[in-house]
Amino acid sequence: MMSKPLQLHEDRLLPADPGIRSIARALYAEVAGLPIISPHGHTDPEWFAENQPFGNATELLLHPDHYLFRMLYSQGIALERLGIGQSDADPRESWKLLAENYHLFRGTPSRIWLDWVFAEAFGFEVTLDASTADLYFDTITEKLQQADFRPRALFDRYGLEVLATTESPLDTLEHHAKIRDSDWNGRVITAYRPDPVVDPEFEGFADNLARFGEITGEDTMSWSGYLAAHRNRREFFARSGATSTDHGHPTAATANLSPAEAQSLFDRVKKGGASASDAELFRGQMLTEMAAMSLEDGLVMQIHPGSFRNHNLQLFEQFGRDKGADIPTRTDYVQALKPLLDRFGNNADLSIILFTLDESSYARELAPLAGHYPCLKLGPAWWFHDSPEGMRRFRLMTTETAGFYNTVGFNDDTRAFLSIPARHDVARRIDCGFLAQLVAEHRLEDWEAAELARDLAYNLAKKAYRL
Amino acid sequence: MMSKPLQLHEDRLLPADPGIRSIARALYAEVAGLPIISPHGHTDPEWFAENQPFGNATELLLHPDHYLFRMLYSQGIALERLGIGQSDADPRESWKLLAENYHLFRGTPSRIWLDWVFAEAFGFEVTLDASTADLYFDTITEKLQQADFRPRALFDRYGLEVLATTESPLDTLEHHAKIRDSDWNGRVITAYRPDPVVDPEFEGFADNLARFGEITGEDTMSWSGYLAAHRNRREFFARSGATSTDHGHPTAATANLSPAEAQSLFDRVKKGGASASDAELFRGQMLTEMAAMSLEDGLVMQIHPGSFRNHNLQLFEQFGRDKGADIPTRTDYVQALKPLLDRFGNNADLSIILFTLDESSYARELAPLAGHYPCLKLGPAWWFHDSPEGMRRFRLMTTETAGFYNTVGFNDDTRAFLSIPARHDVARRIDCGFLAQLVAEHRLEDWEAAELARDLAYNLAKKAYRL
Amino acid sequence: MMSKPLQLHEDRLLPADPGIRSIARALYAEVAGLPIISPHGHTDPEWFAENQPFGNATELLLHPDHYLFRMLYSQGIALERLGIGQSDADPRESWKLLAENYHLFRGTPSRIWLDWVFAEAFGFEVTLDASTADLYFDTITEKLQQADFRPRALFDRYGLEVLATTESPLDTLEHHAKIRDSDWNGRVITAYRPDPVVDPEFEGFADNLARFGEITGEDTMSWSGYLAAHRNRREFFARSGATSTDHGHPTAATANLSPAEAQSLFDRVKKGGASASDAELFRGQMLTEMAAMSLEDGLVMQIHPGSFRNHNLQLFEQFGRDKGADIPTRTDYVQALKPLLDRFGNNADLSIILFTLDESSYARELAPLAGHYPCLKLGPAWWFHDSPEGMRRFRLMTTETAGFYNTVGFNDDTRAFLSIPARHDVARRIDCGFLAQLVAEHRLEDWEAAELARDLAYNLAKKAYRL
C-alpha cells in the first residue's frame, strides 16, 4: 500500500457550484483569520495552568476523543486495545489501530478535523494509513516535546481570544487561578456546571451535597441553605471569570413549584435514592431556580438536553462515563420549558441558550420559541450535529423563523484541544457557504452577507456569552 | 449610515446553478402572470365591503403581521412600543423600530415579502433602514390615500381571481353580502371556521353555543339541535360563497362515537368547564361529524392541527390571542385520523385537506396517507414553513410518495393583504425551481414540468377547493 | 394526444452541477455493470423454480406492485377495476387505467422504475399514456411469451449474483429445493421470516403454532419446545441457503425476560387472543431470543419496524394484507433496543441490521447507535424512502456519525421482479452523486470515492449478509 498525498484544499467545504463558491470564498477570506471565541467546551484547565507537554500522539488525539474510539469500537475493536480505561495498551499499538482503520472516518467530521490537525498543526504531507502509522506517531510525539507545541503556545498560535472550560461547583478552580496569576495572557475561563449537585441521579449525589456544604459553608441539607450554596458558588465562579452556567439534563423539563413544594421535594431527594419522577422534577425545578439566579448575577444559562447518557450498560460498568455510548433521544421543548417561561420568559435581561440533539425540533419548536421569547437564543448544531451537514441543516431549519440574530455563533464543545481551530474553521466555511447561497439566489445582498459572516464567526458568540 | 439600493432581482429565489436556473426561468415565465387563487386566508372582508383607504404604513404592514412583531419582540422590543394591544404608540415611532431592526429579518420570508411590497407596490428604490424610516412612512401613508391603493383597486391590480376569508358560524357575513351586492366584481368568499362553537376550550364556549342557537333558531343545548345548527349555518355559508370549512385544532385527533355516546359527551361539555380529555374527544368527534356533513353539502374540509396556541401566558393575559406566541408541537396523524378514516376514508366524494406544522410527518405520515386514501389531500407548507426552504422541504418530502396530484397548490393563509401576491410569487418561483431540478436530473420531461408548473400555480387550488 | 418519445438519459439522477456530474459519471461508470446482490426482497421463488412465462403486462407490472395501485386508489380508482382482489377485471382495461393516469407518478420512484423497465427491458421508444396503452399491453404480453423473457433468463440477463426471497417457517421451501436441484445456476436463497409464529396478533397465530409443531416435530405448546422448533427451522433454512432472518414488527421494542417470565408469557399468548401489551412484549422477547440463536447459527438479523399494517380497515376486510394501506409511524430505537443491547450489544459476532420508516431517527438515533454498538449496522433507505431523495437523505443524515462502513449497501425489498435492476441502478446513481459531491467539496479524495462506490454498490451487501 502506497500512502497518498495529504493536502487541505483551500476551497474545502465551500459549495461546489462555481458561482456560489466564488461568493463564499470572498466571504470566508474576511473571517478566516478572526480570533476564536470558544465559549463552551471541555478542555482541561490544568493544561494551561501547568503548560506541560502533551505526552504522545495517542494521548493527545485518540484518548480524549470519544468520536474516534466509538467508531473504532462500532467495528469490533476492543476499547482496551485503544488504551481506554484501566488499559496498559502500548500507545503506539493503539495509534496503529486508528491508522489502519482511518477509512472508517470517510465522510465524517472527525476525518476533517484530524486532517486539519495533521496538515496544519504537524505539517504532514501524506495521509494517515497503516504504512504511515509509525511516521505519524513518531513525528507527533517528537513535536509535542517542542516549546511551540506546549498548550499555551498552541493557544496563542491558533488565535484563541477566550476559551471556556466547564467545572462542577465542587471544583476548586485552582487551575484557573494559577492561569490568572501567571504571566501568560491567555483568557481561560470556567462555566458553572452544577449537574453533580443538581441531578439526584448523578453518581454520589448525596455525598456531593455534603461536599457542597463544606466548600460553601452553607447548610446544604436545607432547601434555603442549598440555594444559598449555589449563589455562593456562582459568585465564586463569576469572580473566576465565568459568564455562563451549563445544564446537561436528560430532558428540557422545567418546573415552577411553590417554595413549600420545592422544599418538600428537596427533602425527598437530598439523601439519594430519589424516584425517577422526583429526580426529573427536581432537575426541572432547579432550571427555574438557576434562571432566577441568572437574573441576579447575570450569568448566561445554557441548556443541553436530550442525551441518554451511558446507554451501554456493560461499557459503563467497565469503563465509566463518556465513552461514546451517549445516544440522543426525542426531545420536547414546547411543554417542557413552559413552567420556566411562564415565570421568566418575557424578561429580556435573562439569556437562555438552548441546544438540541433532536433536529426535528429545529424548525418545529426551537426556531418558533427563540423567534418569540426575549430570553431565548439558539445554540449551534451540537455534538453529533457539529458537522458540515449538521450545520447546514441548522441554518436551513432555523433561519427562516428565528433569523440569524437569535443564534449565538459557534461552540466547539470539545475536549480534543487541537480540534478547536479545525472546528471553528469548518463552521466559518459552512456559514459562508450558506450565506453565499442566499446571495446567489438574491435573498440577501452581498454587503449584508459580509456583515453576517463576521457576526456568525465572532460577534454573536461574544455578545451572547457576555464576553 | 447610507441606505442601499433596493431592487428585486428577476431571478430571485430560482436555483443558483446556471443550467437549472435557465430551465426554472422558462417555467416561471409561463406562470408568473396567472391569476391568483387564494382559497385560505384571514384578511378582513370589511376592507373590500367598505373600500376605505388603509390608514398608514404601520397599520397596513406592521399591526396585522405577527411574523413581524414576534421577531421584534424576541429581541426585547416591547409590544406596546409597536402599537400592539391597548397602546397609544405613535405609528411613526413604531415604524421606526421596524426600520432600525430590519436586519433581524435577513434570511426570513418576511424580508422577501416586505421587499416585494416596498419595491413592487410602492416603488421604493432604497432599502428600509433607520435613515429611510421617515421616507418610507410618509410615502406609504400618502399613497394609501390614493384611489389606486384602496382595497378593491389593489385586489384587481394583483390579479386575485378569488380570495377566501375565514369566519365563525356566529358571524353575520354582512361584509360578504355587501360585496356581492356592490357593483364591484371581485370574488371574496368566506370559509366556515366553527372553532368557537366546536372547541369546548375556546374563550366563551358556552355563550357561543347560546348565540349559535339564537342565530340558527335551533336548540343548541341538545345534541341533535346542535348538529342541525351546524347544517343550517353551513348552508348559509355555502350560499354566501363558501366552498370549504376550516378546523384549527390542537391535534389531529378524530373520534367515531355512537350517537348515544356523542350525545352524552355533548351534555358534559355544553355548559363550559369541560375536562381536557372531554374537550379533546369532543373536538375529535366534531371532525367526524363535519366530514359527514361535507358528504352532504360538498364543502371541502381543511384540518390545521398542531399549534400550541397562546403559549406565552403573560402575553395572552395582557394582549389576547394571535400575538405571535403560538408554537408548533409534534403531531401524530396515523392514529389520530383513524376513527374518521375508518368511517369515511374510502369515500372519494369527501375531500379533506391536511396541513401540518411538524415537518417530520411529511414523508413519514402525510404523504403515505394522502398517497393511499381517496379522501385525503395535502395542503401546502404552512405558517412557519410558508417560506422558500419550507416549500422546498415540502416538495422534497412529499412528492416521491404522494406525487404532485395529491397536493392542492398554494395557500397564503395571511391577514397581511399586500403580502398575498408576494407570497404567491415566492411559491411559484420555488415550485418552478423544484421542477427545474427534476428536469435537469432527467427525472421529468420539460413538457411535463410546464404542465405541472401551471397545475401547482393555478389549477390544483381551483380544483381542490371546488372553485 | 400525441405520445412523446421515451428515452433514458445517460446522466439521469446524477447531480445537475456540471462539475459534480462529471465526477459522478466517472464513479458510476465503474459500478454500473457490477453484479447485483439482492439480499432482501419478496419475489416469488416459484417463478425461478418453474420458469413459466409471466402472464401479461398487468400481471407482471401492476398486480404485484402496491406502489402503483395505492396511488391510483388515492385518486379514486376502485381496486376492483385494477384487478386487485377477487376481481375479474379485464387485464387490458386495468392496464389502460394505469396508462391514462401515468401522470400521477411524475416525481415518484415508480415512474423511474417503470420507465427503465419499458425502455430497457421491453425496448419502448414512446411514453406510456392513453394513446399507447394497447401498444404497451400487446407488446409486453407478447414478449413475455419469448424464451428470453422467462424468469431465469431475466435473472441472468440482469446480472443477479444472488437473490434472497423471504419465507415463513411454515413454508416447505420446495421451490428453493427445485431451483437448487435444477441445472440452472442462479442463486436464489431464502430468509427466515418468523412473524406468523412470533407475532401473537398475526392472523391464525394459534393455528400457525400447531403447524409449526407438526413441521418440526417439536412440542410448540411448551416454551422450550417452541424455541427448539425455531432452532430446528432456522437450521433447515440455513441449509437451504438462508444467511439472514427478517422481523417485521410494529415497533422496535425488545425485552429481556428471565426464562421463567418468558415461559409464563408464552403460556399466556400461545392460544391466541393475547392482550396488546402481551403481544408486544412477546414480540420483543422473541427478538432477543432470535439474537441469541443468531449467535449460535450465524444468521444475520434484520429488524424492519415502524409500519402500521393494514391501516385501512374496510380495505383489509375486503382485500386482505399488503394492499398499499400500511402507514409508517414514529419509531423509537433508543429505549426500545436497550434490553437486547444490554444482553448482546457488545458482541461483535452478532450482526443486526436496522431499518426505519421514520427518517427523524436517522441522525438522532440510528447513526449514533450504529456508530457505537459492534452488533449494529444500518439498512438502506427503506420502502417509501427507497427513492432518489430518500436515499440522499439517508446518506446525508447517517454518514457523518455512522460513516459508510456501518451501512450495508442497497436492498430492493420488492416483489416487482423487473424493478430490481432498475432499483439497484437508481441506488448506484444516487450514491455516486453523493460521493461526487463530497469530492467536489474536497471532503473526500477521488480514489476514496472510487473505493466507496464499489463498496456501496457491491462489497458491503455481500459482507454484511455473509453471502
TrEMBL record, chains A, B, C:
Protein name: Uronate isomerase
This protein's record includes keyword Mitochondrion: no
EC number of this enzyme: 5.3.1.12
Keywords per UniProt: Isomerase
This protein's pathway: Carbohydrate metabolism; pentose and glucuronate interconversion
Pfam families referenced in this protein's UniProt entry, alphabetically: UxaC
GO molecular function annotations of the record: glucuronate isomerase activity
Reactions accelerated catalytically: D-glucuronate = D-fructuronate; aldehydo-D-galacturonate = keto-D-tagaturonate
Domain of life: Bacteria
Keyword Magnesium: no
Protein species of origin: Pontixanthobacter aquaemixtae
Entry's Gene Ontology BP terms: D-galacturonate catabolic process; D-glucuronate catabolic process
Class of the enzyme per the UniProt entry, highest EC level: isomerase
Family stated for the protein in its record: Belongs to the metallo-dependent hydrolases superfamily. Uronate isomerase family.
